[in-house]
Amino acid sequence: MKKFALIIIVFTLASCATYSPLVSFVDYSSYNNEGIFLTESNSVSFKYEPVGSVNVLLHSGFANEVKKAPVIEDKKGKGDDVYYSANNGRLKYKDATIQEALRLAVENARNKGANAIINIRYEYVPAFKNNPDGWHMSGMAVKR
Predict the structure, then answer these.
(1) How buried is 35 (Cβ within 10 angstroms: 0-12 exposed, 13-18 middle, 19+ buried)?
(2) What is the pLDDT of residues 25-52, one digit of tens each?
(3) CB-based contacts of 23: which residues, under 8 Å, 6+ apart?
(4) Structural domain contains residue 33
(5) What domain range includes position 141?
(6) pLDDT averaged over the chain?
(7) Distance between CA 41 and CA 51 in Å, rounded?
(8) CATH number for the domain including 24?
(9) Residue 76 lies in a domain
(10) Are residue 132 and residue 116 in the same domain, yes or no?
(11) Are 99 and 135 in contact (CB under 8 A)?
């Protein structure tokens, strides 16, 4: 009977999981005010000229935060591993967000002459082995 009770307790504790929902809101209003039309629908009520597909895969990670830091050089002028760094800044960890993935997609679409993205899809990419978590965003860039 003691073994059975112990087994029940072990399975009860082993099955506990933390409830942690992932809730996101993607704000299209600022792009709408700039004349960029964004929709998750694959059909729209206006005529358009397809420009191309836009895909963004954004992973969380360290980003260089550039600062004008003084560089201390050694006597040879080349520096060394302790005092010299080609990176005149510091690294700051940034979480990948849906909003940042969308910003990169809109920027890319604008550079190609598009003023709308239709059939927008988002997918959370969980961390796996050496790859951090992130977001994949795709859509069709069009000119209306």
Answers:
(1) exposed
(2) 899 999 999 999 999 999 999 999 999 9
(3) none
(4) yes
(5) 17-60+95-144
(6) 82
(7) 17
(8) 3.30.110.70
(9) yes
(10) yes
(11) no
